[in-house]
Write a structure and sequence with these properties.
Length: about 575
């Protein structure tokens, strides 16, 4: 049912093309049914009586009908292929847009490898079924039913052969298909696993080599690959049974028709042309059954894929778009958290608990704490990568859940914990948040981010190529380019999620000094592990197990002691701390 609803939903807008497919398949099927009768007439009347004029006349009609049949078949396949391609395009487009609306929670729930498989392989399976359906759905039943009617008109006494062969073929093929369904379901899940393992190995290739784990990773991929191969072989063996079964029934039925038909011709109750026509109709009936079965064979796998696709399309993002979004409020850069709490689904304890923080426009808030304290989660609440499960997060006095998403994201420049660059050039990455930025603006952002020197040294400068993920540059260079990308946008609020960790102390200090000089009016929220990066912040918030355990300037927190003093003591000497 899910598959049917999916096909109905996405094919409904193309009703005209679908009608054309049905019409031309109908013409093709009717033409196919009429040809054996004309052939029988030529043999029984034209050849038997030596009537050349009748042979030429009837043969001419057969030629015309054959041309119409060929033209109808080509046209039906043409429109069917266009419909199937349109279906695949629309499905992939809707999947992409739905996934792009997901929060981190939904993406983590499905897993990136599974989402990729659902958008590619699963859509392809549904698309192939649609193409096969466009080609066989109308013609197969018409050929089967029409073939039975026409065969009975030719000779009623041989009809018992049809009554035996068709059920035998249907039952045999149905038994094979029933066993194929679980194999197809298992295969799609195992394709997800292969995708996941391969993705992990490509992403973590440096870790694999650093720990000399090539052999174990090769074995892990081989194991996942063997699982897919095993399912594919099982399904393939069952598929391989289908054609021998079809040919066995087809040939046995043909022998039976010729054998019993020969006795009827011998006693004069049947003509040669009638026997040939009956045999042709029997072939059409069995081939139509085979084509219908072939389509039915594709349905189980496509149904599994349709379920997986619908699962994604039917999943609503936990970050809900507002019904009446707020637009055009003053861009000041004031950030406020009022009792903000966040819990992951099924978690026993919240990650963040009752956070009350206010950041005035143009000031700098630093967030520090041990690993797992909830620093990154807090930073993700501002651009709504997650929504607070309790309390509220406000920007310029408005709850972030009430903003128009584009307006909200336009106010924030986020530099994530793991900087990511897209394939393209340095310039295309820097213009990601501001497509109309001039080269001067790009160079200014690079200078502030302490990236101007190495970009200038690269061949092509701003047009230097960048590989996917930024693997053509070092970790520190990638981090500085990510910072420059946010600076080009020139938002009111900057969120640096541990964005200075890959920089040496000198570069870190120069970058923070340049930020104060060139972006003094912007609000800065800095998540950091390193005390030296946040000493000059206007307000430092210390997190521990999702709760605030310290708040103040560097000097005030140092004087209070506690968690912050312990962090300082572990990183700085007494002289550096002072």
């Amino acid at each position: 049912m899910t598959l049917l609803r999916l096909l109905t939903r996405y094919l409904r807008p193309y009703g005209g093309s679908l009608l054309a497919v049905v019409l031309f398949q109908l013409i093709q099927a009717v033409a196919s049914l009429y040809l054996p009768t004309l052939n029988a007439e030529i043999i029984d009347q034209g050849v038997a009586l030596g009537d050349t004029a009748f042979i030429l006349s009837t043969g001419g009609w057969m030629l015309v009908i054959t041309l119409v049949q060929v033209a109808s078949s080509i046209t039906a396949v043409y429109f069917g292929a266009r419909l199937a391609m349109a279906l695949g395009r629309d499905l992939r487009g809707d999947l992409f847009h739905r996934v792009s609306e997901f929060s981190e929670r939904e993406v983590s729930s499905f897993g990136a490898p599974s989402l990729i498989t659902r958008s590619t392989n699963d859509v392809q399976q549904v698309q192939m079924l649609a193409l096969t359906t466009m080609t066989l759905l109308v013609s197969a039943p018409i050929l089967a039913v029409g073939g039975v009617v026409m065969a009975l008109q030719q000779d009623l006494e041989l009809s018992w052969i049809i009554a035996v062969s068709v059920p035998v073929l249907l039952v045999s093929l149905s038994l094979v298909i029933v066993r194929m369904v679980p194999q197809f379901r298992r295969m799609q899940t195992r394709i997800d696993t292969v995708n996941r393992v391969l993705r992990e190995q490509l992403t973590g290739i440096r870790v694999v080599r650093a720990f000399v784990r090539e052999d174990s990773e090769t074995e892990r991929f081989a194991r996942a690959n063997r699982d897919v191969t095993d399912s594919a072989l099982r399904a393939g063996r069952l598929l391989a049974l289908m054609f021998p079964i079809v040919m066995l029934v087809l040939n046995a039925s043909s022998v039976a028709v010729i054998w019993f038909g020969a006795f009827r011709i011998d006693d004069g109750s049947m003509q040669v042309g009638t026997l040939i026509a009956f045999l042709s109709y029997l072939m059409q009936i069995l081939m139509a059954v085979m084509m219908a079965t072939f389509m039915a064979m594709m349905i189980p796998r496509a149904a599994v894929c349709a379920d997986r696709i619908t699962e994604v399309l039917g999943t609503e993002s936990s970050v809900v778009m507002p019904a009446a979004p707020v637009r055009g409020t003053p861009h000041l850069g004031r950030v406020e958290l009022r009792g903000a709490t966040f819990s992951y689904p099924g978690a026993e304890q919240p990650v963040l608990r009752d956070l009350d923080i206010t950041v005035e426009p143009g000031s700098t808030l630093a967030i520090i704490g041990s690993t797992g304290a909830g620093k990154t989660t807090l930073a993700n609440l501002l651009p709504r990568l997650f929504d607070a499960t309790g309390g509220a997060v406000l920007i310029d006095g408005t709850d972030v859940r009430d903003y128009d998403p584009d307006d909200l994201w336009g106010r924030i420049g986020l530099v994530p914990q793991k900087p990511y660059l897209f394939s393209g050039t340095i310039a295309s990455n820097l213009r990601y948040g501001k497509p109309d930025a001039s080269d001067d603006e790009l160079w200014e952002a690079l200078e502030i981010a302490q990236a101007k020197d190495f970009v200038s040294a690269m061949e092509g400068g701003l047009e230097a190529p960048v590989a996917q993920g930024g693997t053509t540059v070092s970790g520190g260079q990638r981090q500085r380019l990510a910072i420059a990308r946010a600076l080009v946008k020139q938002p009111e609020i900057y969120v640096f999620d541990d964005s200075f960790s890959a920089l040496d102390l000198t570069t870190d200090a120069r970058l923070r000094q340049a930020l104060r000089a060139h972006r003094a009016g912007a609000t800065m929220i800095i998540v950091a592990q390193r005390v030296s990066s946040i000493i000059e912040a206007d307000q430092i918030v210390v997190l521990e197990d999702g709760a605030i355990v310290g708040r103040g300037t560097h000097e005030e927190l140092l004087a209070e002691g506690g968690t912050y003093a312990e962090i300082v003591a572990s990183q700085l000497t007494a002289e550096e701390a002072a």
